[in-house]
What we know:
This protein folds into two domains: about 15-225, no CATH class; about 250-450, no CATH class. The chain has 17 helices and no strands. The chain has helices at about 1-5, 15-45, 50-65, 70-80, 85-115, 120-135, 140-150, 155-175, 180-200, 215-245, 250-285, 290-325, 335-350, 355-360, 365-415, 420-440, 445.
Amino acid sequence: xxxxxxxxxxxxxxxxxxxxxxxxxxxxxxxxxxxxxxxxxxxxxxxxxxxxxxxxxxxxxxxxxxxxxxxxxxxxxxxxxxxxxxxxxxxxxxxxxxxxxxxxxxxxxxxxxxxxxxxxxxxxxxxxxxxxxxxxxxxxxxxxxxxxxxxxxxxxxxxxxxxxxxxxxxxxxxxxxxxxxxxxxxxxxxxxxxxxxxxxxxxxxxxxxxxxxxxxxxxxxxxxxxxxxxxxxxxxxxxxxxxxxxxxxxxxxxxxxxxxxxxxxxxxxxxxxxxxxxxxxxxxxxxxxxxxxxxxxxxxxxxxxxxxxxxxxxxxxxxxxxxxxxxxxxxxxxxxxxxxxxxxxxxxxxxxxxxxxxxxxxxxxxxxxxxxxxxxxxxxxxxxxxxxxxxxxxxxxxxxxxxxxxxxxxxxxxxxxxxxxxxxxxxxxxxxxxxxxxxxxxxxxxxxxxxx
Length: 452
C-alpha cells in the first residue's frame, strides 16, 4: 500500500501519469454520471424525438469543430515552445477567430440541414447552438498547458462544475418549456460557465491577442494535417449519427442515441486518457530510445486495453437489463443497441494508443493517412450495412471496419517503433470471446434490431 501511494508522489513521469490518469478517470466518470442522471430526468420531461433532434444538432456542431480543428491542443502538448507566451497567445488568437467563423457556419448550415433531415426545427436551433462554439474560442490556453504538464486536478473540478451548471440549466428549462430548445440553450450556458470558471480559477497568465508570424507558421504547418485528420475523425466518431439520421425516424434515432451513450462511455473514457496522457508519455519516453521505454509503454498499453475492454464487456452483457431498469418502455429498443454497439466498439481498443506516438513525434501527416483510411472504410461499411441490412447491419459493419483498417494502425505504430504484436493478439482473442458471449446471451434483444 505504501509503495502504491509513493508512486503517486513526486514530479517524475510515472507519478504525473498516475495522477493525471486518475483525475481523468474521476472526471470522466463523474461527468458521465451527471450525463446519465440528466438523461434519465430529461427522458421523462421530453420525448424520444427530442434526443433525435439533439443528435442532429450535435452532428453539426461537433462536425464544425472537427472540420476546422487546426491541432492547437496537440501542438501545445508536443511543441518545444508549448510554454512560450508568444506561442500560446498566437494559438489563442487563432482559436478565437475560429470560434466566430464556426458560429457563422452554424447559421449558414441551419436551413440546408433542416431540409436534408426533414427537421425544420434545426433552422432556429443551430444558430443558437453555434453561440457555444464562439464562446469556446475564448477558452484560455492554460487548459492545454495543464494537460501538457499532466497537472489536471483543478481543471477536472472546473470542467465538472461547468458541466453541472449546463445540465442544471437544461433540466430547469426543459421543465419550464417542455421543448428541445432547453437542451440547446443549456449547452450554451455550460460553455459560458466553463469560460468564466477557467479564466477566474485556473492558474497562469491570461491570454491576449498576439500574432507572432513564426508561431503562426509553426502552428499552421503542424495543424494542416491535424485539420484533415480531425475532419476524418468526425466521420469516424459522428458519421454513424449523420448517416443513420437520414435512414431512421427521429424517434428511432433518439433511442439509438441513448443506446450509444450508454455503450460508448468506456471507449470515450479510453480516448480521453489516451489523448491527454499518451502524447506527453511518448514525448518523454519514446519507445525506440531504449528497451526500458518500450517495456513501460507495453505495460501501460496493456493496462489501458484490459480496463476498457472489461468495461465494454460489462456493458455488452448487462446493457439490456440496465436499459430496462433506467428507462420506460418507449426506450426498450436501446437494450439491443447497447449490446451491439458495445461489441462493435471493442475492436477499436486494440489500436487505440498507436496514433498518439505519431502526434508526439510531430508526424501529423502519417496520422492523417491513418485517420483518412479509418473514416473512408467506416463510411463505406456503414452505408452498405444500413442500405442492405438495416440498423443491425450498420452496427455490425461499424465493428468490422475497425478490423479491416487495423493493418494501417500497425504500419503507423511500426514507423514510430510502438507496435506491440503480443498485445494485439491477446486483445483480439479477448475481443472475439466477449463479442460471441454477448451476442449469444442477448440474441433475443439483438434480433429485435433486424426490423429496423
